[in-house]
Amino acid sequence: MQCNPTPLQGLLLLTPTVYTDARGHFFESFNAKTFKQVAGIQPEFVQTNESLSKRGVLRGLHWQTAPKAQGKLVRVVHGAVFDVAVDLRENSETFGQWYGCELSSTNHIQLWIPPGFAHGFLTLTDTAITSYQVTEHHSPEHEHCMAWNDPVLNIDWPLKQAGVAKPTLSPKDEQGVAFTSLS
């Protein structure tokens, strides 16, 4: 596995070694020993989530606050998404900054998102199946949603690449709060 840091503290791009032959491919999407050796992290996952999204669906930006903050290991099983993480850790040097990258079933890149980050993604293909392991159970009373189009964050969502002028949002995501309301 290859581990590459991003500009945001603790946010990591993880690319597994993929073994390909005439039958298809094989890779380890998670191995505790490898994660500790290569990435220096030891997440204890308690839940695995999977979502199926159609082209132009934007999910997020979601996060849970302490004591139920979640770390997430995100990957795409089918299709492609533009995945975004926003650093909401007030003591972080990268507080309020975002990072986005394409995760796909072709590139096999995974994104490690530490606790304290908001997370969301935009579906770039006709359908995408996203799987993410989390370090804390879902807790509605600790769950929050930030506006995907917050002008302060100014996330450059690739709507044109997704083939849509406006993303499809859930009612909850349409009610996301402004970044400035967090301070």
TrEMBL record:
TM annotation in the entry: none
CDD domains: cupin_RmlC (cd00438)
Keyword Isomerase attributed: yes
EC number: 5.1.3.13
Alphabetized GO MF terms: dTDP-4-dehydrorhamnose 3,5-epimerase activity
Keyword list, A-Z: Isomerase
Oxidoreductase found in the keyword field: no
Enzyme class: isomerase
A Pfam family of this chain: dTDP_sugar_isom
Annotated pathway: Carbohydrate biosynthesis; dTDP-L-rhamnose biosynthesis
Catalysis performed (reactions): dTDP-4-dehydro-6-deoxy-alpha-D-glucose = dTDP-4-dehydro-beta-L-rhamnose
Family: Belongs to the dTDP-4-dehydrorhamnose 3,5-epimerase family.
Function: Catalyzes the epimerization of the C3' and C5'positions of dTDP-6-deoxy-D-xylo-4-hexulose, forming dTDP-6-deoxy-L-lyxo-4-hexulose.
NCBIfam families: rmlC
Complexes and interactors: Homodimer.
Entry protein name: dTDP-4-dehydrorhamnose 3,5-epimerase
